[in-house]
Amino acid sequence: MTSTTKAAYHHGDLRRAILRAALDVIAADGPSALSLRDLARRAGVSHAAPAHHFKDRTGLLTAIAAEGFGLLAAATRESADLRDAGVRYVRFAREHPAHFQVMFTRELLRENDMELTAARALSAAALRDAIPIPDDGAPEARLARVAVWSLAHGFATLLLGHNLDNLLGEEDDPEEVLRALPMMLLPPT
Hints:
Number of helices: 10
CATH topology of the largest domain: Tetracycline Repressor, domain 2
Largest sheet: none
């Protein structure tokens, strides 16, 4: 057994360490910069050690996405109303930008992964329950959910990409801006 191999056994939670290092890389340089070999080096383990937990790069990214959807479900589950759900969605994106980036880049993921499928379903249910729109099968209910999700997701994406920097002042709280947006889009009846 080499000293590198021994380090893997004494590492503690290698899976968590690799996930944490991957999230740091993604946050700094994006998912394209991710390399299992580099993550193993950072963790002080053999280059093959991460494959025991994730099989390959796609497996690692899929695990990150699944974890992200679980975190998103927890973040939105107790939303008080429509605006609160949107604010919690944007807050999640701001607090977990690497997860957010990977979760919605489907070509990076193993779509048939059971953990990912379950986490997506949990997240979708939490968002559906947080958005109090009667679901009687009418297309309007489905489209209303699409509109709400589009607004929150688009705002979060623009915010994380620094595309709103010139439009929002330093004194503007992004969460308060998001709370005001639906009223600006929906004129009084």
